[in-house]
Amino acid sequence: MVLYNTELQKALEKIKAENAKTVCIQLPDGMKPLANEIQATIEKETSARVLIWLGSNFGACDMPLGLDRLGVDLVISWGHNKFRKEVGW
Amino acid sequence: MVKVLFLDAPFTGKVELSQDTISYLKEKQYKKIALYGSVQFCNQLDKVHEQLKELNIEFITSKPKRAQIVSQLLGCDNFQDSFNVDLTEVDAYLYIGDGKFHPLALVYAQKDSSKWKEVICNDPISGQMLLLDWKHIEKILRKYKASLKKFLTVDTVGVIVTIKPGQEQFKPSLVLEKKYPDKKFYYFIDNNVSFDQLENFPFVKIWVNTACPRVGFDDQEKFLKGVLNMNDAYQAVELLSKESILTRV
Fold first, then answer.
1. Lateral strand order in the sheet of B32-37
2. B72-to-A84, B68, B227, B241 alpha-carbon distances in Å
3. Is B92:B59 a contact under the CB 8 Å cutoff?
């Protein structure tokens, strides 16, 4: 049973709208086993190369750094939404 | 600048109160509760609202400080003032979602309160109910209280600052230097907190965490010298001198 909707249509629309050539996909631990299926769909429907973020995904506060050096245009992060940082807590 | 798309990954099943939860709420005769859920569930609470109405239970909810939508609970909204609403009148908290990480924020948020309210977790995936109370964090709070006391007595402090833009709190952490001019503060920069590196700095007598506030609680065991969160270090004397769950443990 698939517990969570991967909302792949939204992901594909964004890749196409941004004309992204290299996309980093970041998944929470529970969804990491789906990375190959997500990559397969993106590769089938777009011409983007997919890089899978290996590391942590604690929340929207935990975005991968330094991806611009690899030419990544777009990060798609599952399981979280925008985060409002509180300075000084 | 790399663009970012967040996808909530909503739960695909039914989001509703289980029979266990309904029976428990009836048994406790709660009249007013605070309702929150993690992002996979909090956009689908219509059925839960209906069920609470049928049970004649009033609910309060809000958009907490760090969240993006109403009723969303993040693990870092674990402060007494996180919820942007007065919750003093509620009898208990009701959390909709799986796991303990998010609902424990509701437990930690009560550490500075004098009165405890239980957290009822309704998991739509397993259909199970779980109750969280301050006993779940008693051991952590006991050590945390010890760290607060230790912090006030030591002269060298290691402040951990993460470079993640969503977490970095370097400038806010500098207020500690002004508040405690007799202490020497060393600042340590990292991406994820490298717990295995902490013992390489033996001159540090206690650690202050400025990264995710949950590190100061959930990862406490990994800090052999003790750890406390930045905001609590700032108000250590006040926290230790008032009647609260923290001082009671």
1. B58-60, B32-37, B92-96, B119-123, B128-132
2. 12, 7, 28, 33
3. no
**pLDDT tens digits, B123-170:** 999 999 999 988 999 999 999 999 999 999 999 999 999 999 999 999
Q: How far apart are CA B86 and CA B91, in angstroms?
A: 12
Task: Report the residue of A1, A81, A85 to disrupt the B interface, i.e. the one with the largest count of B CBs within 10 Å.
Answer: A81
B178 touches chain A (CB under 8 A): no
The domains found in chain B, sorted by start residue, are 19-132 (3.40.50.11850), 139-248 (3.40.50.11860)
Provide the sign of the torsion angle of the four alpha carbons B43, B46, B48, B53, taken in this order: positive
ipTM of the predicted assembly exceeds 0.95? yes
Minimum CA–CA partner of B43 in chain A: A81
pTM greater than 0.90: yes
d(CA A3, CA B224): 38
Whether the CB-CB separation of A28 and B98 falls below 8 Å is answered with no
Q: Do B2 and A68 touch (CB under 8 A)?
A: yes
**Residues in contact with B94: Cβ distance below 8 Å, sequence separation at least 6, in sequence order:** B21, B25, B33, B34, B35, B36, B59, B120, B122
To which H or E segment does residue B173 belong?
A: helix B170-173
Q: Which pLDDT does position A1 carry in this prediction?
A: 66
CATH numbers and ranges of domains, chain A = 8-77 (3.40.50.11840)
Determine whether the interchain pair B172/A77 forms a contact, defined as Cβ–Cβ distance below 8 Å: no
- The DSSP bridge pattern shows strands B128-132 and B119-123 to be antiparallel
Residue A80, min C-alpha distance to chain B (Å): 5
Backbone phi, psi, residue B5, to 5°: -120, 125
Percent of chain A as helix, strand, coil, to the nearest 5: 35, 15, 45
Q: Which two tokens stand for residue B79?
A: 């402060």
